[in-house]
Each structure stands twice: as structure tokens, then as C-alpha cells.
What does this fold into?
Amino acid sequence: MSELLKCQQLTKDYGGVLALNYIDLTVESGKIIGLLGPNGSGKTTLIKIINGLLTPTSGTVLVNGMAPGVETKKIVAYLPDNSYLNSWMTVGQIVDMFTDFYEDFRPELALDMLKRLGISPEAKLKTLSKGNKEKVCLILVMSRNALLYVLDEPIAGVDPATRDYVISTIINNYNPEASVIISTHLISDIEQVLDEVIFINQGNIVMKKSVDEIREEHGKSVDELFREVFRW
Amino acid sequence: MLVWELDKTRPICPQICEQLSVLIAAEEFKPDEKLLSVREVAVKAGVNPNTVQKAFEQLEGQGLIYSVRGSGWFVGADTESAKNTVEELKYSKTKDYINEMKKLSLSAEQVKEYIKEWSE
It folds into this structure.
């Protein structure tokens, strides 16, 4: 088991507002991890720093031993919280673009998953429903053979059937060498697939624990514990 | 047959063990028959593959199943431990039911009446 992600004393200060408050965090390979916290707790800030889209105010982040940059982008597959794809492109064109862009992209896997959903490569992105657009984005990310998958709110705003699809896609693509970090506030839908949860609140990590440990110790689902920890 | 109904307030791993034991005790999978793969169970039950792996290893520890390198998991010759698990489940589920009925102020006699009515 290797350390895929290591944050030490990581801080992000948005001009007086501490989005991340001296965070220490380690993520090992072979895990599916839930990054859970209420709105504005620092989830997306942390994810953007991991992906090199924001620079920390202080502290360090190492992704497989490297600072975020070109080399780490080759091994991190990132699903942002909103789509950046050009809506006038066809699904097939986007698959081609990903094939050019990422060495680890497996177009045959992506096309196979799209086919099973009945999404034609000729379809333009803008003609797809919201649910199907989200599925396309997830398929693109999960079709990379990455070491770290970072999914920012992959199940927000989609119907329960689509949620099930997202979850089974994550399980089907599970690889013991890699880890998946899923940020969400919809815990009850996803808690069964998680190994561990990280509770984050106001820029602090308040808990990092295995989910079966939580159930064992508290006799509660992760969702129930979350509601208790974050009661206001 | 298999519903994979999981209680989120209890650890998932022992629940997977229980459900597989029920399947084996009911001879849905017979000795030396190939079991579902870790991934198949994970997808069907919608749970983490590491949890399923751990459950399989625990059942292996009980001697209920065995793995063959490269070909997956198989049911062992001795299914006694699965039968024991099922017996314990019968006992605890009945106890749970009786406790629920007590909350509804039903006496044991009344519970028997209801059961009789339903089984006719």
C-alpha cells in the first residue's frame, strides 16, 4: 500500500477566510473514500489544490510523492463539480480529445460504457439530458487508468437511478492500485461503497475513520453520525 | 432469492458473511461449486469491494469457502458453519420480532394467535 496523497499543514486563506485550516491528511492506495462535509466546509478547495487549480497559502500537498503539476495530472483523474466540456462537440469527438490528451485513457472502455447506456457517439453533448451529460463526464473520468480519482459531487442533482449507475460504475472500475475520493453531502446514497470517510467542517478535518468502525462503535449509519456531528 | 438488503447501522462485512452463509446453507451454491466473484457481489449489493473481500476471507477462515488462485472462490465440503449462522439468524430474527411486538403491547399468547392466523 503506498501513500497516494499526503497533505501536511495545508492551509488556504481567502483573504481572512480560512477555507483550510492546517490540514494533515494521508490517503493510501486501494481505498474508496468519502470526503463529507456541509456546504462551504472546504471540500472543493481541497480538491482544487490536489488538482493544482489552486495554490495553498502554506503547507504541502504531495500526489504520489510529487507536488501538483503536469506530472500529477497524468495520474489523477478529476471530475469537477461542473462540466467544462464544449457542448457543441459530439460524444465521439470528446472521446477522441481525451484519447489525445491522456496517455492512460482507454477509449474502448469509454465507448463500451456509452454503448451500454445507449448514448450514441454521434450525439452532440448539448442534446443530452442532464443525467446523461453527467454520466458521460463520469465515464470519461473512470475510463482513465489513473492512480487517484477525484470526483467532486458526482451524484448531486441526478435522479436515484442515475445515482445507482454512478455507484456501480465506481465499483466496477475499482482497482486495488488506485484510490477514489468522492466528495458529497448526499451520504446515505453512497456510504455503502466507502472504505473510509473524512468529515470536514470549516476547514478542519473532524474525523477520518473506516465506515465499518463507525457502524461498530456508534451503532449508526454514517449518515446518522454526520447529522449528529454537524448538528447546528 | 438474494436481496442484499443491508442495514446501514450495522457493519457491512458481517452482513455479507451472513447472506452468503444463508445462500450456502440453502444449497443455492453446493460444495465445490463456484461462488460469485468479489466484484459480482460488490456490484449486486452496491458495496465496497474491499468489504466483500474481507467477508470472503472471514468465511475462508471459518472453512466455509476456499479460493483457487486465478479461478475464484468455491464452496467447501463442510457447510456446518453456514448452517450454524442460519440457526443463529433464525433465533435473533425471531427475538427481534418478539421485541417489536412487545413494544406494541402484544403478549406472547397474542403473538402466537397472530402467527397462527397468518400461517393458515
